[in-house]
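To close the section, here is one more complete example, presented without commentary so you can practise reading it yourself. The ligand is calcium ion.
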Amino acid sequence: MTEAIKLIIDTDPGQDDAAAILMAHGLAKRGLIDFVAITTVAGNVGLADVTTNARMLCDWVEQPTFPVYAGAAKPMIRPLVTAANVHGEHGLDGAVRHEPQTPLQPIHAVAYLVDILRRAAPQSMTLCAIGPLTNIAQAVSLAPDCVQGIKEIVLMGGCYFEAGNITPAAEFNFYVDPHAAAVVLACGAPITIVPLDVSHKACVTAARMNGLRQTGTQNGRRLADILQSYERHDIQQFGLEGGPLHDPCAVACAVFPDMFHGRSCAVAVELQGSLTLGASVVDWQGKSNLPVNARWITEVDADRLFDELRLSILHLP
Ligand code: BDR
Ligand code: CA
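Output:
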């Protein structure tokens, strides 16, 4: 039997982040991953709220000793831009908030990442990055040798065949910290990118939402409530059939790579453009001489993704 992949989620919960985190807890219960830790980063809302949300989610799945580390409170260079208009003032509209029992670890997320990746067996840890890339960029900048411990970075960010969702050209995670995205893309670790090009093909339909509700679990109902509140923005703004599950796509891609298709190519982030800041430039046709640095995902088996999400939720309280 192959060893379960060791997974750290770097995240800014966020409603679709919540779906990704619940899915990861369920995957761990199924023995498909060794879910090691959550590190938080400012993004969808500020650091205090996203960190509280991550801890609340661990309470929900009755894992009050699960390690949660708080990371960067702002992007590397730019001021923080949030998406509270999408996810709600505290980032988790649709959920009942409470003061979490799961403690906050007393170490900064960047220090934690440097330490665990330095001590890890070579190429043994998968980082699933579903927020702005500030923490990971700082870890690989402070300690480039820590890249040795990374098996793969699977990140949700960018867009190329789809329009941007925060500006006409840019996807939210890359736009919020484009400098961090550039650092991570150049860090030398194997990288898989799950952009809007694929996550817009994984929308929550009424049937899929009912599937979660009908798991008969408290977390299935909680997740359906969150996703019900989340979808209105994307339906109104982008004409999608439901809320796109951006971040669960990244977790699924790390665990079930055969569910996805893409192409290895050179990927860069625009850092100069006045209209295109944070846009991803993808050499899909191999027109540049730039080195291939990532696998860019464009296709997903969405029915299978939702089956795996539902199955994972079924393993939760
Ligand atoms: C990304 O931006 C955030 O709002 C979501 O959580 C997701 O990570 C999609 O562009
Ligand atoms: Ca996110």
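Once you have examined the tokens, check your reading against these statements. The first strand starts at residue 5 and ends at 11. The domain at 5-314 is CATH 3.90.245.10 (Inosine-uridine Nucleoside N-ribohydrolase; Chain A).
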